[in-house]
Structure formats: C-alpha cells, structure tokens
Amino acid sequence: MRNTPESRIYFLGAGNRTTMAEIFLSELNKSFNQSWEFFSVESPSEILPPIGDFLPIYIGPDFDSIEFDYLLDKAIDECSNVLFIPFMDSACRALSKWAQSRGEFQGFAGTPDSSLLSDKLFLQTTLPLFGFSTPQFTGESEMVIVKPRFGFGSRDLQVMQTSAFEILGDNWDSSWVVQDFIPGPEVSVDVYVTKLNEFVAISRDRIRVSEGEVLETRTRDLDSFELNLVETLVTSMRIRGPINIQLIGDEKLVLEVNPRFSGGATASIAAGWNAPAWLISEYLLKKPVYLDAKFNHVHVVRSRRDHVRRIN
Known about the structure:
alpha+beta, 4-stranded parallel sheet, 3 domains, Rossmann fold, 6-stranded antiparallel sheet, D-amino Acid Aminotransferase, Chain A, domain 1, about 300 residues
C-alpha cells in the first residue's frame, strides 16, 4: 500500500512553464528530507501540454466550475500539507474564492483580492484614485486596443484603427476594456509578499515581446516610482505570494496587475528573486523567510523548445 506523502504541490494551469517546473523541483530537492509529491492540474486537451515532460499531470475540470472546488477539497483531505500555485488568472480567482470559503485555510500562493487585481476594468478606474495613471480611451490615438475585462497574455486582444472602433458605436461588448494604443517601452515588476506583509521586488525591462510573452528581458532594481507603486498596492490590497505588475510607455502607465507568476518571472528568479524558495519555506516548511533584495542582474533571451508528441 502506498504511503501518503507529507507534502504536495499543485501547479494550476502551468501548461508550458517547463522552466518554472524545473526551478521548483530543484528547490524542493534542496529543502525536503521527507516525502513530497508534485502535480500539474490542466484543462482537458487532446494532447498533454509540455509541462507533462516534468510533472505528473492531472486532467481536471474548468477552474470556474464547482467540480474544481471538489478537486481542491479532495486534495487537502488526502494530504494536510498542500500548496496550490495558480498560473492562470481564472485559477487565481477560483482558488481565492475557494480559500476564503474555507476560512482558515492558507495553503495557496495567491492573494485574497485576486478577483480585483485580475479585473482590468477595476484597475483602470481605481488606480488613478491612488495617483497612478492607467491607459484610457481618449479617441486621440490612431490605434486602439480592445481586450477582455478578464484574461491573460494577449488572448482575444484586438488592435484596430480608432476610426474603425468609433464606427462600431455601442455595437461591442461593454464589459471589455478599451484603451489607446500605447507604444513601449514595457516594464514588468515581480513582487513577492510574505504572510507578514513584507515584500521584495525586482524590475524587468521587456525588450522584445511577442503575443504577450516576453522573449528578451533585462532585470534591474526598482526606481522610486515603481517602489511607490508596489508599496501602495501592498498596503491597500490583500496581497500574498507572487504578483506581477506591467507598466507601459514613458509615463509608466499601469497596464495590468497579475496575482500570479508571470511568464518572464524565471528571469527575475535567475537574478535572485527566489520566490519558489520563499513559497516552499512559508507554506510547506512553515518557516519565516529572509527576503534578500540584493540581486545579480541578468539579461535573458527566451526561445521556444520543440515538444514532440507522437500521434499513433
């Protein structure tokens, strides 16, 4: 009969985050003498995603479904020391809602305000109240961006001529977010917030981006504007674990706040923003963490590897 492991980690919707899986596996091997297990929960698909090369995959229900709540309940019934790490906004929202319904349960790397942080319309209207500008629709730019209120990366994002958009009038989904097209530069700020509300953050200049994924990035220390923004968010919102803030334009308009690891977070980790180690220490080992803000900055170029799946 198989013994129940002492600890388990569940990635939620990690998909192609193979480098992140390797980093976590390395940190787990450093930290644990006892038994642990690692899974990735993925949506139904004809072909398993690349992360299946590294981790056992559990094909689960949609994150927004009641069946997903049952899956989480079953996971903690089977193992008392569990850590859930969401990689998609829908997983963040579902996990946060589920965790709040359980009261004292703390075994998830996410913020209780995930639904607000991942709501682009909420950020567009709320952040200016704290003195931070967000992209708006003025009709003065040649191009306009239309994107879902809830979404990630560039999924379903549309870029069109402002004149063409204005012709639509009211014939578009008013729940979507409309913004002037803002040319770069783009910046990502990766932040880790502890259970004691302490944080450490690192900035990345997004040098080359394709379909929302950063292909070339360079890490650096935060400037005063970025530090003020992070401090404001951490003190005004209920944030825990990793978050990612995206800024755009010379004026550093706040484009998005993602309550999860971003795709380019592996570059920040390589520079010393070791969020995987901090998560394992806080949530699985139940130990306080020492947040070192001294980084050895890196320049990272990401390329896509071929993941071959044989079809019989």
